[in-house]
Amino acid sequence: MFLIPKQYSPDPDDSAFGPYVDPQISDRAKRLTLRVDPKNRRIKLVIPRYAREKDVKRFVERHQAWIAARLADLPRGVPFDHGRIIPIFGRERKIHIEPSQKRTTECVLSADSLLVHSARPDPSSNIRRWLIEQLRRKIEPLSHDKAAAIGKSINGITLRDTGTRWGSCTSNGKLSYSWRLVFCPDHVIDYLAAHEVAHLQHMDHSKAFWTLCDSLSDNMIGGREYLKLYGTELMRYGNAD
User: Fold this and answer.
1) Where are the domains of the chain?
2) 3-state SS assignment for residue 181
3) DSSP label at 184?
4) Chain-centre distance of CA 198, in angstroms?
5) What are 222-235's pLDDT values in tens digits?
6) Quick one: which of 86, 93, 104, 109 has the fewest CB in 10 Å?
């Protein structure tokens, strides 16, 4: 029997995996699994540490149709280019990029557009940083206010480019959110803030947790449903098409 040694790392260029499958060894996994990564438009293949190499390749071969179907279902990326339409706080805006002589890229938000003045040929990274800052200005005070309402304090808030989780809370009071929440309506952002703040008191998803989360939310059910319906689509913004 061939056992994958501890130092073994599957070659992602192995033709058996195909161009869109990323193999990952896991010490915790007990069986082979495939997971969709909508942010990167990839399929993650989770491999138990001591799986047999031939079983891994047979597993991938058997699931080629599933892999192709899941990739086909993923929405195409929407880069931050001139003329593209992106939702900002749930409202669609068209990106207008205009050349500028200034060294600093400036972004101006209106009811139906995002006007970008930039000397850079590709200011997409500047647009992304600006979007992250807009979310920070909204979600940080929102989180602190909700924490204060239940007599808790927050030890830091970070915004990250996560692929599977919209938020997290550590046992020492640090909160983290996906920066892509900037594309969501306000009630969704409010729900996520309530969700993570509720974890400051309940580090689980017990009935007590959901009762507290609901009391802290303007629209908990609506926020959860929105992410279930549109969460995958939100991953497309800022990615190449």
Assistant:
1) 21-73, 85-234
2) helix
3) S
4) 20
5) 999 999 999 988 99
6) 104
